[in-house]
Design goal:
The protein is 45% helix and 10% strand. The chain contains 19 helices and ten strands. The chain is of the alpha/beta class. The chain is globular. It has an eight-stranded mixed β-sheet with strand order 3-2-1-4-7-10-8-9, sandwiched between helices. The chain has a two-stranded antiparallel sheet with strand order 5-6. Bound molecules: S-adenosylmethionine (SAM). The site of S-adenosylmethionine (SAM) has 22 residues, from helix 2.
Length: 456
């Protein structure tokens, strides 16, 4: 029988309550409830696995009391969790001095020099938009990024924009930076998700981080990911689609200048400094934490010898995280991916969202696969004797949000098939209530989060 530890260590301090990236389904709001559930199921200091760790908020909260293993299939999640759990020594001032030098060189004869025609054109578009002429900015946003814009499309653009694109491409070629990893943020995401300047600056930071010893790279990369999440110019700060400058009826949005300038005028290096200071301020612990990139299906086959609690927070809508955060994945992997295509009206075009090819498709996001995905998870953990705290979100509280892939009422019997005790707790307004099945249907408030507390 596991030792019940009551409220020990359930309170999350302000410094542990930090959002490294804006993340759909982040559990920042219910950290105390999760800590309490994990404490209730565990012996003091027994290890915990944060399966589906995402932005690492739960790992960060649990890491102060016990050894944490974070697991997620996305590389950006591994990088962030690694920076949170095992922050390497990092000489911030020295790195920033080097990065500023690299920026100077890039401005004279490197990436920023190559990007200059588009950087300057974008500045002029924003200046024009500030005094009411929105069309040039609208055209720039609709043109897409360097990697997706076709020659046909260039011919249909205004002469000034076409010239800026052609000059930038020519300059990139002249400094051997076209189609290389060193310019991937600029070519894929400049103009779409970030200003051209910000995108080139993200590349400069990543290029400098790649020169660091391996053990220091995760904290540098994680700070770039936090920066990208902070400066991205989209509604909701995800990367599912770039901003649309027009209303549904085709007119340009009146608020366009405000929508664009609020993010694109942010200073990349300043945001990076804030992020790295934050990672550096995370309290070090004596535990040997680990951050792993793995599919949960592989991870659960290797549980033997792990005798701790598992906290699992799988996706609950049909939106694949790999689509919503593909930009972070490319920045974290630092590769030069091919871009996926869309077919419309008999034409094949590179995706407007500049999605990378071969994105992970999670079975939890696919209605026909989700029941088996849950069953396999429950079975593997119960067989290995691991208690489980499972998060699930019962309602689509956000306007226009996609429905949940599975209903809480359908997950519960699956859990009962494998665990001897399953308790359902509702976090938020009716915190820690224990509900029976009928109550479950009527009582759960909008915005509520469910915790299944399962004992083998
Ligand atoms: C609801 S989010 C987790 C949020 C996290 N608890 C937080 O607070 O940021 C779900 C996570 O599951 C991950 N995921 C989806 N399918 C997966 C799979 N097959 N194996 C491992 N991780 C997966 C996604 O990448 C995503 O980060």
């Amino acid at each position: 029988m596991p030792l019940t530890t009551g409220d020990r260590g359930s309170q999350t301090t302000e410094s542990e309550r930090w959002r490294p990236i804006h993340y759909l389904g982040s559990k920042l709001r219910i950290l105390d409830n999760i800590r309490k559930a994990v404490n209730d199921l565990s012996t003091e200091r027994s290890p915990v696995c944060d399966l589906f760790a995402g932005s690492g908020t739960v790992s960060a909260a649990l890491a102060q009391d016990r050894r944490v293993t974070s697991v997620d299939v996305q590389e950006y999640a591994r990088v962030i969790c690694s920076a949170i759990l095992q922050p390497a020594c990092f000489d911030v001032e020295r790195f920033l001095a080097r990065a500023l030098d690299a920026k100077d060189v890039a401005t004279r004869n490197g990436l920023l020099w190559a990007a200059e025609p588009l950087v300057q054109y974008e500045t002029r578009c924003l200046e024009a938009a500030a005094i009411g002429n929105l069309e040039p900015l609208c055209e720039l946003l609709e043109a897409g990024s360097l990697v997706t814009i076709s020659n046909d499309r260039i011919n249909s653009l205004s002469a000034e924009l076409a010239k800026a694109i052609i000059q930038t491409n020519a300059r990139l070629n002249s400094v051997d930076l076209n189609d290389t990893v060193q310019s991937v943020a600029l070519r894929h995401f400049g103009g779409t998700y970030f200003s051209f300047r910000q995108a080139a600056e993200l590349d400069i930071l990543l290029n400098e981080i790649a020169q660091l010893p391996l053990h220091a790279q995760d904290i540098g990369k994680a700070s770039v990911l936090s920066t990208a999440s902070q400066i991205v110019n989209t509604i909701g700060k995800q990367f599912a689609q770039p901003l649309r400058p027009r209303n549904k009826n085709g007119t340009v949005k009146k608020t366009l200048h405000k929508l664009v300038s609020r993010d694109r005028e942010k200073d990349t290096f300043l945001e990076f400094k804030k992020a790295i200071d934050k990672y550096m301020s995370i309290k070090r612990t004596a535990f040997e934490h680990k951050a792993i990139r793995a599919d949960y299906r592989d991870f659960i086959t290797k549980l033997e010898g792990f005798n701790g609690v598992v906290y699992a927070d799988p996706p609950y809508t049909r939106d694949h995280y790999s689509r919503f955060y593909h930009v972070l994945e490319t920045l974290a992997l630092r590769d030069n991916p091919k871009v996926s295509v869309n077919k419309a009206h008999g034409r094949t075009m590179l995706s407007r969202g500049v999605y990378r090819l071969e994105r992970h498709q999670s079975p939890f996001c696919i209605k026909s696969l989700a029941p088996d995905a849950f069953s396999n998870l429950f079975q593997a953990l119960a067989l290995n004797g691991n208690p489980l705290v499972l998060s699930y979100s019962p309602y689509a509280a956000e306007k226009n949000a996609h429905p949940r892939v599975m209903k809480v009422e359908d997950i519960e019997p699956l859990a009962r098939k494998f665990f001897s005790l399953v308790e359902i707790r509702v976090s938020e307004n009716i915190s820690h209530s224990r509900l029976n099945k009928t109550e479950l249907n009527k009582e759960i408030a909008k915005n509520a989060e469910i915790l299944f507390v399962c004992r083998p």
